[in-house]
Q: What sequence folds into this?
């Protein structure tokens, strides 16, 4: 009987172990402030993202509805990423401000020359396909003004960032900089003492002391001593703040585009007119975006008239689910029409490219579709006439 009771107690204790372990886990960090509207995390979790060197996006975790921050950091081969795009990796010392040090040759060989690493700061919050805010870890809210130490009134304290390493190393270094942020007659002491592990590391950048700087009528506060050490996102010193980086109206544009169903390849191909006035279609392909555009939901068309040596090369891009491209064209419209009277504002943007020897034209339809056209031996007004014959609005019916 005693044996049975002992086994039963052992079984109960075994079952209770996961609960005890869960209770003893380090509590998740929590956001200090609360934003309203689309960035109100109490309505839905907010996704944390960053971008790799090759332009690919990775998810770093999320902010839960209760404001707690859950990091889910992916492992990857950082060397393979840089090799795939034939890009030189970052100079390791420069990521810790250790370039231009007094009495040091920046081009001399070091034990860290073959280290592949990357600093991930800030942490972006993505919604409706765009980065709408950042999550900033600091020791106190005043540090948020220390934007790359460009503030006129720096606050002593720490900011933090995630750092990815391709190996485990010890990094201990000191540097006296005689040039900092364009200031050439002050000295700034920088030091690092970090035991890196392979993969993700949470780093503290501590502005230990500041100094006053004056030159003529210019007076500012500059760094005097900066220290880099390793920390933890769960440290009680770390305070997490949200900061909105996109205006509400831009978020609403992205939200509207995110609700649309993208135009299909079949819809694009069925719509394509075989002729534009005296021009005939010669190329028709789907999924080949114009330069500088990632969105592959588009159709690329070329129309030509060989006898008159006229040619139009154009892309029709659907921005549904891809608001970044629409934001770029909206910015171009704003710059083009800045200061113009309403009567002088056109439905399109056009300019002549000396390099391409062609007229470039951009046109947006219903704040959703972008037409990117280039015309050879065609002026802006005639090119606009051809674009109107496309009747792009039919794609949205």
A:
């Amino acid at each position: 009987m005693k044996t049975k009771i002992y086994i039963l107690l052992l079984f109960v204790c075994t079952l209770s172990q996961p609960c005890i372990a869960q209770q003893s886990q380090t509590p998740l960090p929590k956001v200090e402030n609360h934003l309203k509207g689309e960035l109100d995390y109490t309505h839905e979790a907010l996704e944390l993202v960053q971008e790799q060197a090759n332009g690919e996006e990775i998810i770093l975790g999320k902010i839960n509805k209760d404001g707690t921050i859950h990091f889910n950091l992916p492992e990857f081969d950082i060397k393979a990423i840089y090799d795939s795009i034939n890009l030189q990796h970052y100079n390791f010392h420069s990521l810790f401000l250790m370039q231009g040090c007094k009495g040091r040759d920046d081009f001399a060989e070091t034990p860290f020359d073959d280290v592949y690493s990357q600093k991930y700061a800030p942490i972006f919050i993505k919604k409706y396909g765009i980065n709408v805010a950042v999550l900033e870890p600091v020791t106190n809210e005043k540090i948020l003004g220390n934007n790359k130490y460009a503030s006129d009134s720096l606050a002593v304290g720490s900011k933090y960032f995630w750092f990815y390493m391709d190996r485990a190393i010890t990094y201990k270094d000191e540097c006296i900089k005689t040039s900092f942020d364009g200031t050439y007659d002050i000295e700034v002491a920088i030091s690092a003492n970090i035991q890196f592990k392979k993969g993700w590391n949470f780093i503290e950048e501590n502005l230990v002391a500041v100094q006053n700087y004056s030159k003529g009528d210019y007076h500012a506060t500059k760094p005097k001593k900066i220290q880099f050490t390793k920390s933890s996102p769960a440290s009680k010193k770390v305070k997490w703040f949200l900061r909105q980086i996109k205006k509400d109206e831009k978020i609403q544009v992205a939200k509207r585009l995110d609700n649309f169903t993208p135009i299909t390849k079949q819809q694009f191909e069925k719509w394509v007119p075989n002729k534009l006035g005296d021009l005939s279609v010669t190329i028709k392909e789907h999924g080949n975006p114009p330069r500088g555009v990632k969105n592959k939901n588009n159709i690329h068309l070329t129309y030509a008239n060989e006898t008159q040596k006229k040619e139009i090369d154009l892309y029709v891009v659907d921005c549904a689910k891809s608001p970044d491209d629409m934001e770029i064209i909206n910015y171009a419209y704003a710059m083009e029409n800045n200061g113009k009277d309403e009567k002088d504002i056109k439905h399109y943007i056009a300019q002549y490219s000396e390099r391409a020897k062609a007229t470039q034209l951009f046109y947006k339809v219903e704040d959703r579709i972008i037409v990117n056209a280039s015309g050879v031996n065609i002026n802006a007004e005639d090119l606009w006439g051809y674009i109107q014959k496309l009747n792009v609005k039919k794609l949205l019916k």
